[in-house]
Amino acid sequence: xxxxxxxxxxxxxxxxxxxxxxxxxxxxxxxxxxxxxxxxxxxxxxxxxxxxxxxxxxxxxxxxxxxxxxxxxxxxxxxxxxxxxxxxxxxxxxxxxxxxxxxxxxxxxxxxxxxxxxxxxxxxxxxxxxxxxxxxxxxxxxxxxxxxxxxxxxxxxxxxxxxxxxxxxxxxxxxxxxxxxxxxxxxxxxxxxxxxxxxxxxxxxxxxxxxxxxxxxxxxxxxxxxxxxxxx
Length: 232
Prior knowledge:
- The structure is a single chain.
- Helices cover 66% and strands 0% of the residues.
- By secondary structure, it is mostly helical.
- Helix 6 runs antiparallel to helix 8.
């Protein structure tokens, strides 16, 4: 009697989706940077052909925009119930700061595409909180723009500093070296820089970033609309 062999069902691959394409693009950008994001490299990561990717995105520009949108959307998701405007702005700012630190390419993408959705998403969230703070309409654009510029500028610079740190050098060693260099500057030409050299050595990037946000918010709140006095 012939022996019947039972065929095992073949393992089905996870279907390719736009979400998988975008998440894989983020991983590739994190490891290889924008120059390393090619459809050939992405297809190899996804174990598919480049043609299959074009079903979900039309080209590299759309892929970069979608990857940036995916990262930014996570930072704009509210995580606190009924926060004050100040708390909401601080949370959003810190979310963008951490996102750019984890994904340095995001800062460049936001700065290079101010009219696209990811940038507008951040600007919209900031602007709504500025309105809630009671800032006069004529000052709202300036207030929201100042916050956005500070957030992107400081977050981007922090990410650039991290990338510029010499290989095999930790942050403490790097700051100690720079601090010592500041302390040795000409005392007449760089009096202030020499004076704060020790603060550079021990400062915390995130704490300094949030302190700057608070300084801006303090200035913004001076432009609030006057409120009616409480009835006696």
